Structures are given as C-alpha cells and as structure tokens.
C-alpha cells in the first residue's frame, strides 16, 4: 500500500458537504424510515381493518384471557381492541398474516357460538362465553389454536407494555436514583451458581 492509498484527515466542513441527510452526496435521495415516532400524540398512518363487531369480540375475549382486578383494569378498559386493530392493520411483515389469523379466528368464535347456543358470542352469558374460549384454546385444531395463541400473545403483550400494565409487573421505567442499591445477595448467589456450572 502506498501513501497515496491512505486516507488523509478530512475537515468537518468536508464531511458536512459529503454527507447530507445521512447519505453520501451524489448517491441519490436517502429513503430512511421517516421521523421518530410521536409518542405524546401518536397517530397511525394506515387505515384500521377490523370491524366494530370484531373489535367488540376482541374486547370481551381479552377480558376472559386476562381478567382485570381491583388494582388493575381489564384489557378492554385500557383499549386492547384498539391496540390489536392497529397491530393487525399495519402493512409490515408479518402483520398481514396476523390479520388473517385474527379475523378467521373471530369468525370461528361467532360460528361456534351460533352452532352450540343459537346466538353470537357477544349475546352469550359469561359461562357460555368461557365454554367457547375453552373450545378455541384447545390445541386439537390447528386453525383455532393458532388464533388463540396469537390473540393471547397480543392481549398479554399489549397490556403489559401499556401504562395500565406497567404497575402490574412492577415496572417503573427510567427513574432517578439517589443511590444504586447494587445486586442483592440472592441474585449474587444465583449468578455465582451459574458461573460455577460454567467453570468460571
């Protein structure tokens, strides 16, 4: 390698000229992914795809999967149907596949309700609704099992990553500390045991 091959130091002015918007100058317009999300007043740029009836089904099913308590609101109260509608309506992989699973599964819930009880799921009493949930939660049939697993994943994931769900798992977020308490003796014992198993 000759001295001509070595990169010479460059000034900040040169860097600013060559790199605009994160793209070397002369290489076209950068695509990127857009601006940072607005988490204060969020807005979804895609249309929602679930019907009001499907959203109502999700609200009731969500409350059966993850019942509320005196201290923590039910998923329907914190807007789980809105969250899932937004999720399955998103145009990114694998969201369209999730939309198919959810919509097909909701149809199964209503069809089975009518077959067993002569009424849609929303018109059933709590005991009969739970019977339908036990039916879809059985791994005996792949389609309804896939629906139940996906719905449960979205209900639990959506709930425990929300302002309503954080307190239920003791998550306080980034908060200022006057002192760092360090690792507890119990945690140290577990770490030491694992390190011994690894021969470290």
TrEMBL record:
<dbReference type="Pfam" id="PF13618">
    <property type="entry name" value="Gluconate_2-dh3"/>
</dbReference>
<protein>
    <submittedName>
        <fullName>Gluconate 2-dehydrogenase subunit 3 family protein</fullName>
    </submittedName>
</protein>
<dbReference type="InterPro" id="IPR027056">
    <property type="entry name" value="Gluconate_2DH_su3"/>
</dbReference>
């Amino acid at each position: 390698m000759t001295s001509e091959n070595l990169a010479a130091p460059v000034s900040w002015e040169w860097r600013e000229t060559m790199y605009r918007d994160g793209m070397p100058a002369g290489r076209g317009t950068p695509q990127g992914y857009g601006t940072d999300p607005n988490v204060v007043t969020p807005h979804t740029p895609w249309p929602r795809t679930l019907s009001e009836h499907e959203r109502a089904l999700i609200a009731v099913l969500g409350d059966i999967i993850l019942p509320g308590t005196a201290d923590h609101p039910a998923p329907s109260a914190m807007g789980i149907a809105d969250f899932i509608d937004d999720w399955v309506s998103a145009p990114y992989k694998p969201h369209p596949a999730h939309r198919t699973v959810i919509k097909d599964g909701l149809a199964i819930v209503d069809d089975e309700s009518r077959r067993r009880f002569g009424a849609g799921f929303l018109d059933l009493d709590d005991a009969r609704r739970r019977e339908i949930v036990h039916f879809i939660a059985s791994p005996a049939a792949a389609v309804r099992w896939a629906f139940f697993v996906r719905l449960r994943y979205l209900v639990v994931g959506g709930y425990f990553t929300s302002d309503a769900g954080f307190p239920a798992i003791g998550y306080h977020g980034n908060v200022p500390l006057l002192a760092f308490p360090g690792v507890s003796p119990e945690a140290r014992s577990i770490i030491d045991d694992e390190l011994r198993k690894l021969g470290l």
